[in-house]
Amino acid sequence: MLYALARPLLFALDPETAHRVTLGLADAAQAVRLLGLLAPRVPAAPVRAMGLEFPNPVGLAAGLDKNAEHIDALGALGFGFIEVGTVTPRPQPGNPRPRLFRLVEAQALINRFGFNNVGLDAFMANVARARWRGVLGINIGKNFDTPVERAADDYLTCLERVYAAASYVTVNVSSPNTRGLRTLQESEPLDALLARLAEARERLADRHGRRVPLALKVAPDLDAGQLRGIAAAVRAHRFDAVIATNTSLAREGVEGLPQAGEAGGLSGAPIRARATRALALLAAELGGEVPLVGAGGIMSGADAADKVAHGAKLVQLYTGLIYRGPELIAECAAACLRAAPGPR
C-alpha cells in the first residue's frame, strides 16, 4: 500500500535515480527497524532445493542489488532467498547512462547496464557487513574486456572468492549487455566452462568442508536444440539448478512504444511467455533431476503459480517488484504454496 502511494513520485524520477533512492529509503527504514513492520507478512511456504532449505520459494533476482549493499533491507521484505551481483573480478562502470528505461504501458524495463559493479574486493566487504542470515546467492560474471576465450578465468576467480560466503553461486552467461557473453551458452564453450567450474567446486568443497551449489542462468531467446544442449551440460557437470531466464533481446509486445527501440535486455510482462517456454522445455529435458528457478515476467501471484506449474521449484522477482512493490512477494509466496504439487 505504501509503495503504491510512493510509486508515482519514484516514477517521476529517472529510472536509475529512482532505483538508488528506493534502496536508500529501504536502508534507512531498516536501520530503525521499521522496514519489517511495514512490509506485508509473507506466509511460511518452506521449500528444499539445491540441498538448501528456503523459508519460501520467492527470491530476489540478481541485478537489483549489484554490489551487495542492501542485503539487510531486502532481507527484511520477506524474500525466501536473495541473489546479489553480478560481480566481476575487477570493478567496472558499465555502459554510459542512460541505461535503464521504463515502458510503463507494457509493465516492462529495458536495461543495458553492462555488469556495472564495484569488483570482488568491495563486493565481498559488503557481504561481510550484512547481518541477514538467509539463503544468499551470489551471481558471477566476466569483465567486459576479458576475451571470451579467457572468460573461464574470470568465473574461476569469482568462484574462489565468493565460495565461503555464498549459499549458492550463479554462473551468468546470459546477459545481453556484455559483448560476446551469450556465446558461452553454445555447446562447446559451455561444456568447457562448466567442466572447469565443476572441477574447481570439488577442490573448494574439500578446502571449506561444504559443497556450495552451482546454478546456471540462461537466456529466454534460445531455441529447443540449444536448451537441450544446456540441459545435457548441466546434467553432465552436476550443476545444482538452472535459472530460466534472464532478459530478452526480443521486442514482442512492446513494438511501437516509446523507448522500445533502446538497446539492451527487455524484462517484465512482455517476456513472460518466452521465459516460461524456456522453463518448460528445460523441465521436460531434465525430468526433475535438476531444480529450476522460474524468472521473467512475474507480475502477479498467478504468474508465479504458472512458473511452478511449468516446472519451477523456486521463482525470482525483479521488474515485477519495481511495478508492484513488496506486496508482490507475499502474493507470490501464497500462490506458489497453493500451486505446489505434493511435498516441497
Explain this structure to me?
β9, α8 and β10 form a beta-alpha-beta unit. The chain has twelve helices and 13 strands. It starts with a helix and ends in a 5-residue tail after the last helix. α8 (224-236) crosses α9. The protein has 344 residues and is of the alpha/beta class.
CATH C-level name: Alpha Beta
Beta strand count: 13
Give the CA-based shape: globular
Low-confidence residue ranges:
none
The CATH topology turns out to be: TIM Barrel
Helical content (DSSP H or I, runs of 4+): 25-40%
Determine the number of helices (DSSP H or I, runs of at least 4 residues): 12
Biggest sheet architecture: 8 strands, parallel, barrel
